[in-house]
Write a structure and sequence with these properties.
Length: 185
């Protein structure tokens, strides 16, 4: 079982099991882990399960996400005993399956598959591929335009591109997204 053991902040003393494929953290009540803290963005970070490992990604938060005092700039794998900080909240990552074995390591070089992206990143990419502007993507997904830009920035980094056209072309070539029927011609 993998869990976050909160030691500081609004959830101090709570243990939250990391279940499912994705777990969002933020101030908004629709997040899986709600942190009522003005230092936390509405949609702050996400935990993603990949091949048994838990990966953490900051979603363009204003104040950042930290692991062991180091700001998370890219997808980062959590290891047993890591200290996660989001706003004034601190939580220890507890992986009882670790048992001193660090054999489950997800290497960045092998991550360029659909599983390298969160479902939300792929949603944003699909909507952008349909020609929607950031403002419209934000409205459809009920997030801020800034959050959409953060998702796109992360997608650009993962694909090794620097604009929307290149991201769409690369994602189509890699089979990460498909154009809706009638738009492929």
């Amino acid at each position: 079982m993998q869990m976050l053991v909160f030691t500081h902040g609004p959830l101090a003393g709570k243990r939250v099991e990391v279940r499912g494929e994705e777990l969002t953290l933020g101030r908004r009540t629709t997040n899986d882990i709600v942190l009522k803290d003005p230092l936390v963005s509405r949609l702050h970070a996400i935990l993603v399960r990949r091949r048994g490992a838990i990966l953490l990604e900051d979603l363009g938060s204003h104040n950042g996400t930290y692991v062991n005092g180091e700001r998370v700039m890219f997808l980062r794998q959590l290891r047993h005993g890591d200290l996660l900080q989001v706003g004034s909240s601190r939580a220890l990552f507890d992986d009882d399956a670790a048992g001193g074995d660090d054999s489950t390591v997800v290497h960045e070089g092998g991550l360029l598959t659909p599983t390298a992206f969160t479902q939300r990143q792929l949603q944003v990419l699909r909507l952008v591929a349909r020609g929607l502007a950031n403002k419209e993507v934000a409205r459809r997904l009920a997030v801020s335009e800034r959050t959409v830009k953060a998702y796109l920035s992360s997608v650009f980094d993962k694909l090794g591109v620097n604009n929307r056209s290149a991201a769409i072309t690369t994602a189509l070539r890699l089979g990460l997204i498909d154009l809706p029927k009638g738009e492929a011609e």
